[in-house]
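Protein entry
_____________
===
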Amino acid sequence: MNIVLHEPQIPANTGNIARTCVATGALLHLVRPLGFHTDEKTLKRAGLDYWKYLNVHYYDDFDDFLQKNNNPPVFMVETGGKKLYTDIKYPENPFIMFGKETTGIPKNILEKYEENILEIPMPGVVRSLNLSNAVSIVIYEVLRQRS
């Protein structure tokens, strides 16, 4: 499984996601610019001592990510998606992308992936979930489907 973070801004979120990736065997793809340096203490603290086990790849931008991964089909998790994250059958090694904490995935990217935009339901008044929580929800759905 491949978790793609498009321009993440908060180091603790990325650290928590890295730890979840190690726990689940997922690869982590970080698309720049990042809102932090990868040697920041909060990033390392959130990932604890698991960084040495993390399979992480860095990209200059989204086009670089697409090129280096042979234009894979990408599922995008975003509010307003046409499908729930539980309504699809994930392929063997899905690429699942999440946007930056403040603005999500840019509209120009979403327009190219309209059929692959997934949503996590939030019937309350909250506009969005914490990024690391959203990633965990979707990762464990993919694992549930495989069991």
